[in-house]
UniProtKB/TrEMBL annotation, chain A:
Protein name (record): Acetoin utilization transport system ATP-binding protein
Record Pfam families: ABC_tran
InterPro entries per UniProt: AAA+_ATPase, ABC_transporter-like_ATP-bd, ABC_transporter-like_CS, ABC_transpr_LolD-like, MacB-like_ATP-bd, P-loop_NTPase
Keywords linked to the UniProt accession: ATP-binding, Nucleotide-binding, Transport
Family as reported in the entry's similarity comment: Belongs to the ABC transporter superfamily.
Record-linked PANTHER family: ABC TRANSPORTER ATP-BINDING PROTEIN YTRE (PTHR24220:SF648), IMPORT ATP-BINDING PROTEIN (PTHR24220)
CDD domains, sorted: ABC_MJ0796_LolCDE_FtsE
Annotated organism of origin: Sediminibacillus halophilus
Automatic annotation (TrEMBL), chain B:
Residue runs in coiled coils: none
GO cellular component, as recorded: plasma membrane
Domain spans labelled MacB-like periplasmic core: 22-284
Keyword vocabulary terms for this entry: Cell membrane, Membrane, Transmembrane, Transmembrane helix
Domain of life: Bacteria
Species per Swiss-Prot/TrEMBL record: Sediminibacillus halophilus
Pfam family membership, one: MacB_PCD
InterPro entries referenced in this protein's UniProt entry, alphabetically: ABC3_permease_C, MacB_PCD, Macrolide_Exporter_MacB
Annotated transmembrane regions: 21-45, 301-326, 364-387, 407-429
Subcellular locations according to the entry: Cell membrane
GO MF annotation, one: transmembrane transporter activity
Presence of keyword Transmembrane: yes
Name assigned to this protein: Acetoin utilization transport system permease protein
Length: 232, 448
């Protein structure tokens, strides 16, 4: 599903004429197979979020290749990557990233609107997806009227609504209490098993890493070998 | 993303900042109304002037003054008339030879001094001349008089102060009130010989009176004589067209008018559409001609320049309003940066983001244009009602009834709406481009 080959990335700091380079990722290579749940674990500043942003196409790598579902995404331009993201990737963010002026229903509907789906199709799919995450009665609520766990479920529903083969999750439980976290991890496992969706989860939490089939550990921008915690 | 969804999306966004969006729309509407009202003055005065020109002159008339040959203008002769009549679209060609003195016409003790001329009656009838009484002349000594001839025929022994009223018309009690048809009338022409005035009287008979002219202000008191009467006058005066020779100017008559040439030649076209074609053909053959169509063309050209100038001045008001739109859209982009970031993250193309913001500025522009047009129609109506009343009360003079100060044709509405939309979309272009360049990560971290 995902192949990362010899990936390098650095950030340029400072102003023009006095720039310094901060190396973030060095020679990262790994693979994620279909229907896997893979956790990328590392401390703060290890470069795990940068890795996810590179895979998501939010930033472009300095060197290396990323392949997703048979497409070399590092060759895509901004417009093509946007279209690719819409059809192939779902996102779950730490702080949910819901549009506050839209209801839960409208937030989940947004990817369908962007894909040009008809209103009838949208209605049926959104209701079904909200039911899957257990929020069928909360569609008309605004994010501010929902709990953290419910907001993250809306975020998952939005990631699921176009039925992507891969969901990228950036610290999905970072803003949740332990009980809610447990429920959410169960939901992710359930979606993986029932729908066969591949999950790549960025986390620093061992509890989260534990639900993965594999764990890839990153330290100081480089891959740490032998990071497998749990295999089915 | 479908257009309908984009529209819904924009509507929702606009609802979030109703007051700000309304104020921007209002500024655009005022700019648009100013543009329309300003240009409508040009359109109104143009229309009034064209109507005035069309009313005062026959639109199918082409006056031909002469033909340019070797740098000088030659008077028109029979072969020119034959050529004019052969041009397609020509209904009639009238030609007149005018007596170069005003003879005195007398019936008993009533008399009038007026112009006399020869004309070709068949072509005059084709051109639309009608007689109100009598018939066309059949004999050489028969004449046709103009419709107002009788009203100028007055008692001869009355002083001028007593004879005329305030409007310079002969008082009714001194006017000839008998029937003119079949009446004997004397035409007296004069010539100066050896510093002495000599006169010659020709007896004539009135056979017909022309119909009243179409224009109320126009008076026809001419006398239409035959060629043989003209020849008799010329024989008496010894000059072409009966010109009076004053001492030292004996040679003036020679060469001024050739015997077989015409003084007034008018071509009547079958309809207004062919007037320009005939005028062009005459121009190609070096004839000097004039028609109301060429005057209208000149008026149109001048007013096109004036109207363009007014539209440009009006556009400045819309440009000022566009600063408001630019400001509103920039604020909208800044406020919605996190939302834009989320949309981009889940797969919105930069083009879609740009289109949403352009649609929003376009909708503000369209709403502004609609409101502005409505305001402009109200202002235009008020101007047309109030301004004549104000001017009449200030200058104590009645304005022409066809005068319109402001007129808003649909073309002006379309031009103004087009300018308004273009300016508003252009002013939204930079904020829209900025929206597409928003960094997803910074936006989601609320750093934009």
């Amino acid at each position: 599903m995902i192949t990362v080959k010899n990936l390098y990335h650095h950030f340029e700091l400072g102003k023009k004429g006095n720039k310094t380079t901060l190396s973030v990722l060095q020679d990262i290579s790994f693979q994620v197979k279909e229907k896997e749940i893979v956790a990328i674990k590392g401390r703060s500043g290890s470069g795990k979020s940068t890795l996810l942003h590179l895979i998501s196409g939010f930033i472009h790598p300095v060197k290396g290749e990323i392949w997703i579902d048979g497409t070399k995404v590092t060759d895509l331009n901004e417009t093509d990557f946007a279209a690719f993201r819409l059809q192939h990737l779902g996102f779950i963010f730490q702080n949910f990233q819901l549009i506050p002026s839209m209801t839960a229903y409208q937030n989940v509907e947004l990817p369908l609107i962007l894909s040009g789906a008809t209103q009838e199709k949208r209605k049926a799919v959104v209701q079904e997806t909200l039911r899957k995450v257990g929020l069928e009665n909360h569609g008309e609520h605004y994010p501010s009227e929902l709990s953290g766990g419910q907001q993250q479920r809306v975020s998952i529903a939005r990631a699921l609504v176009l039925n992507p083969p891969l969901i990228l999750a950036d610290e999905p439980t970072g803003s949740l209490d332990s009980e809610t976290e447990e429920n959410l991890l169960e939901l992710i496992q359930q979606l993986n098993e029932e729908m066969g969706i591949t999950f790549l989860i960025i986390t620093h939490d061992d509890q989260v890493a534990r639900i993965g089939n594999r764990t890839i550990e990153i330290a100081d921008g480089a891959l740490v070998e032998g990071g497998v915690i749990h295999e089915i | 993303m479908k257009f309908k969804d984009q529209f819904q999306f924009v509507r929702q966004n606009m609802k979030k900042n109703k007051v700000r969006v309304f104020m921007t729309m209002l500024a655009t509407a005022i700019g648009c109304a100013f543009l329309i009202v300003l240009a409508s003055v040009g359109f109104g005065l143009h229309d009034s002037l064209i109507q005035d020109t069309m009313q005062n002159r026959a639109v199918t008339e082409i006056q031909v003054h002469g033909k340019e040959t070797d740098g000088s203008y030659q008077a028109l002769k029979d072969e020119d008339i034959d050529y004019f009549e052969s041009i397609s679209g020509v209904r009639a060609v009238t030609r007149k030879k005018q007596l170069q003195q005003s003879p005195v016409f007398s019936i008993n003790d009533y008399q009038v001094q007026t112009m006399a001329m020869t004309t070709d009656f068949p072509s005059e009838m084709k051109a639309g001349l009608e007689l109100s009484k009598g018939k066309l002349p059949e004999k050489d000594n028969e004449i046709v008089v103009g419709h107002d001839f009788a009203s100028r025929l007055a008692k001869s022994n009355i002083s001028d102060e007593e004879l005329y009223n305030d409007q310079d018309q002969v008082k009714e009690k001194y006017q000839y009130d008998g029937d003119l048809i079949g009446k004997e009338i004397e035409m007296k022409v004069v010539q100066i010989e050896d510093n002495e005035e000599k006169s010659h009287t020709i007896p004539l008979t009135i056979s017909g009176i022309t119909e009243a002219p179409n224009r109320e202000w126009f008076q026809d008191q001419n006398v239409y004589i035959s060629e043989s009467v003209l020849k008799e006058v010329e024989q008496f005066t010894g000059t072409n067209r009966g010109m009076i020779t004053t001492p030292g100017q004996e040679d003036m008559s020679s060469g001024q008018q050739q015997e077989d040439s015409y003084d007034q030649v008018t071509i009547y076209a079958e309809n207004m559409e062919v007037v320009q074609e005939i005028s062009d053909e005459l121009k190609n053959k070096n004839y000097a001609s004039y028609s109301v169509v060429s005057e209208i063309q000149q008026i149109n050209m001048i007013f096109t320049i004036i109207k363009t100038g007014l539209i440009i001045v009006g556009t400045i008001a819309v440009l000022i309003a566009s600063i408001g739109i630019y400001n509103t859209m920039t604020m909208a982009v800044t406020e919605r940066a996190p939302d834009i970031g989320i949309m981009k993250a889940i797969g919105a193309k930069p083009k879609t983001i740009k289109r949403i913001f352009l649609l929003e500025s376009g909708m503000i522009g369209l709403a502004g244009a609609i409101i502005g047009t409505a305001i402009a129609f109200i202002v235009s109506m008020a101007v047309n009602i109030a301004l004549p009343l104000i001017l009449e009360s200030v200058f104590k003079e009645e304005l022409p009834p066809e005068l319109r100060f402001s007129m808003i044709p649909w073309s002006l509405v379309l031009i103004a709406a087009g300018i308004c939309l273009l300016v508003t979309v252009l002013s939204g272009l930079r904020p829209a481009r900025r929206a597409t360049q928003i960094d997803v990560l910074k936006a989601m971290r609320r750093e934009v």
